[in-house]
């Protein structure tokens, strides 16, 4: 800075101005503050997960001081709001399993067939029209599907099975399956389209037909993505609430027969929430115990999906 | 002689395999048709039942014990206010989180945990978010069974959607854009706010719209919070005639939303109420379809216009 006096005023101003482009405390602070905010919002997702787990475990803990875990798992009745209270989760679990099973019986094959068709067979225009349409189908609110199951599908099923009651797991499961198709098909299709073209070309060059290529080359190559799609479908089915709450009735019923009315874990939570249960009562705690069971089931599937994805991931 | 036989044999095999191709193609079209027809049936059924009920009065009346004079005024006002809270909470947090994970995060264990966690959160059933909101917002934080608690619950629910959309939109911007900004002396945040966010705005907007469309239809978490099914009044107006003109009383008001109103009507035995349910469902479906359609259109425009 010693020789500055020999410069003209103009150049001196320029140098002083250039100093602002160097390290500036204010600018540095500004950047750090923004980064801190961004970091906090990213960390929030972990906080949410922890909050969910802590909240469910905390309330369930109180519940399990009142009811033993053994009773919770083995009792075959779920009547927490009656005078003669029983706290066996099995009736709710059986309802969940039956309705999810029917839903997956519809959604997984249909979703896979649609995905293979769209990814390997369909002409460009069909795909461009079908994809947004399926997306719209996935956007319809679940309560609307519940209405559809109760007032459209059940009456149709009743003409085939006259003894079918107005509330039943069958129609709820079928509609849930239709509802889940878009999730399964779009994820499966994405996975299949991500398989590089030269695998297809290799297969065609060996004289394979489209069907053979799809089944023997593309599907194995896309296995990890397809597994992820199936797992997501299962999670959706298990956690689906409104369709079963509306169309399957809300009585806990230990049955494996889809023609009967029954309640799922989710439907029970809805039923209790519709009533007016005081905070801290045993009824209030039951929905958290039910919620914890549900979370454990879906987390198990998510972890299986994660492991499958890691183990069978093909990298090209 | 042998050779001709072989040729015929090969032809036969090829024909057989080609037939499988055809069979599968027909199966695929049938499966697609079943999905399409189901949707058509759903829409037609609701249209036939609900259309006669749709009138100006239906939108401007409160729910009532008499089905002919019942309407969805409190429901659509509630839905609008809840969505407002959801958007205000989820949009900055979702975008912030997406930007952090894409641009700022170093590749370490914490980042990986956050990433896995976002995927896991997307797989958590919506009713669990309702239980979280019930325990945390309604009782622990004392928000009560209010618009605020419902809006925040739905915000948590759609957060993963916004995060994933933000990340994908930012990731698709070429590195050259960032390098150009840095070369001109921009700081990281200047690069993000002046270049990356504007370029990815269409993609982020698509994610936000899809998330909100999902939130509008969500019923279970809001029932869990304890929203009432019969509300014959509106929350206090956010605009006041005297100073300070803006009031936040509505945040703590009891409320109902469209899907809950519909659920309430569906679960009544009287057929007249089920017609109301069809009409409310029609409004709900048109709302979500319009939002999803807008998102699809935006994405289509984006794909067509942007060529890096």
Class by helix and strand content of chain B?
Answer: mainly alpha
Number of domains of chain B: 2
| Helix count, DSSP H or I runs of 4 or more residues of chain B | 11
- Under the CATH scheme, which class of the largest domain in chain A? Mainly Alpha
Distance between the termini of chain B: 61 Å
Strand percentage of chain A lies at under 5%
Based on helices, strands and strand pairing, what is the structural class of chain A?
A: mainly alpha
Summed up, the helix count of chain A is: 13
CATH superfamily descriptor of the largest domain in chain A:
MetI-like
Output the CATH class name of the largest domain in chain B: Mainly Alpha
Name of the CATH superfamily of the largest domain in chain B: MetI-like
Major sheet attributes of chain A: none
Rounded radius of gyration of chain A (Å): 28 Å
Biggest interface in this structure?
A: A-B, 86 and 91 residues
Provide the descriptors you would attach to this structure in a database record.
heterodimer; A: 316 residues; mainly alpha; MetI-like fold; 2 domains; 13 helices; 0% strand; B: 308 residues
Write the layout of secondary structure elements.
The complex is a heterodimer of chains A (316) and B (308).
Chain A: H1 9-19, H2 25-66, H3 69-74, H4 90-121, H5 124-139, H6 142-160, H7 169-193, H8 197-205, H9 210-221, H10 223-239, H11 242-247, H12 265-274, H13 282-311
Chain B: H1 2-50, H2 56-60, H3 73-104, H4 109-123, H5 126-140, H6 147-171, H7 175-183, H8 188-217, H9 220-225, H10 258-266, H11 271-305
Helix pairs in contact in B: 1-11, 3-6, 3-8, 3-10, 4-6, 5-6, 6-8, 7-8, 8-11, 10-11
């Amino acid at each position: 800075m010693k020789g500055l006096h020999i410069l003209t005023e103009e150049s001196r101003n320029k140098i002083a101005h250039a100093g602002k482009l160097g390290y500036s405390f204010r600018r540095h602070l500004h950047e750090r503050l923004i980064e801190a905010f961004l970091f906090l919002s990213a960390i929030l997702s972990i906080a949410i997960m922890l909050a969910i787990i802590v909240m469910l475990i905390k309330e369930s803990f109180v519940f399990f001081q009142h009811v033993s875990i053994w009773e919770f798992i083995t009792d075959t009745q779920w009547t927490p709001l009656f005078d003669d209270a029983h706290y066996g989760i099995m009736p709710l679990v059986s309802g969940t399993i039956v309705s999810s099973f029917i839903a997956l019986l519809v959604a997984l094959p249909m979703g896979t067939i649609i995905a293979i068709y769209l990814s390997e067979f369909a002409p460009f225009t069909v795909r461009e029209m079908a994809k947004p349409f399926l997306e719209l189908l996935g956007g319809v609110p679940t309560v609307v599907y519940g209405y559809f199951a109760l007032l459209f599908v059940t009456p149709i099923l009743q003409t085939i099975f006259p003894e079918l009651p107005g509330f039943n797991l069958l129609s709820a499961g079928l509609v849930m399956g239709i509802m889940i198709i878009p999730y399964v098909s779009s994820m499966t299709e994405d996975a299949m389209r991500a398989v590089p073209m030269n695998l297809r070309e290799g297969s065609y060059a060996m004289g394979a037909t489209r069907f053979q290529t799809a089944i023997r080359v593309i599907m194995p190559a896309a296995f990890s993505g397809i597994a992820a799609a199936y797992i997501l479908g299962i999670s959706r089915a298990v956690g689906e609430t409104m369709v079963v709450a509306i169309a399957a009735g809300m009585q806990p019923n230990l049955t494996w027969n889809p023609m009967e009315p029954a309640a799922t874990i989710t439907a029970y939570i809805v039923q209790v929430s519709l009533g007016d249960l005081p905070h801290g009562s045993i009824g209030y705690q039951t929905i958290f115990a039910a919620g914890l069971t549900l979370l454990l089931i879906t987390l198990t599937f998510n972890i299986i999906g994660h492991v499958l994805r890691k183990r069978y991931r093909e990298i090209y | 002689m042998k050779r001709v036989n072989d040729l015929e044999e090969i032809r036969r095999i090829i024909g057989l395999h080609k037939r499988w191709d055809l069979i599968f193609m027909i199966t695929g079209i049938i499966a697609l048709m079943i999905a399409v027809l189901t949707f058509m049936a759903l829409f037609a059924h609701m249209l036939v039942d609900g259309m006669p009920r749709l009138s100006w009065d239906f939108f401007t009346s409160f729910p009532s014990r008499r089905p002919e004079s019942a309407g969805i005024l409190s429901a659509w006002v509630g839905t609008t206010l809840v969505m407002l809270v959801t958007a205000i909470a989820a949009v900055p947090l979702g975008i912030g989180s997406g930007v952090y994970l894409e641009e700022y995060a170093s590749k370490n264990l914490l980042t990986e945990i956050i990433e896995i966690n976002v995927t896991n959160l997307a797989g958590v059933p919506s009713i669990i978010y309702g239980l979280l909101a019930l325990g945390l917002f309604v009782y622990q934080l004392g928000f009560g069974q209010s618009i605020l608690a419902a809006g925040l619950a739905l915000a948590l629910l759609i957060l993963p959607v916004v995060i994933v959309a933000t990340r994908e939109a930012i990731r698709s911007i070429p590195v050259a854009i960032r390098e150009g900004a840095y070369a001109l002396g921009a700081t990281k945040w200047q690069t993000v706010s002046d270049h990356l966010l504007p370029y990815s705005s269409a993609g982020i907007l698509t994610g936000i719209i899809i998330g909100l469309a999902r939130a509008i239809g969500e019923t279970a978490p809001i029932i869990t919070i304890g929203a009432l099914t019969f509300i014959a009044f509106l929350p206090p107006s956010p605009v006041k005639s005297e100073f300070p003109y803006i009031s936040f009383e509505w945040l703590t008001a009891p409320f109902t939303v469209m899907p809950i109103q519909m659920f309430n009507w569906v679960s009544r035995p009287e057929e007249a109420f089920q017609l109301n349910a069809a009409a409310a469902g029609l409004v709900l479906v048109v709302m979500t379809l319009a939002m999803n359609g807008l998102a699809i259109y935006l994405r289509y425009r984006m794909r067509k216009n942007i060529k890096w």
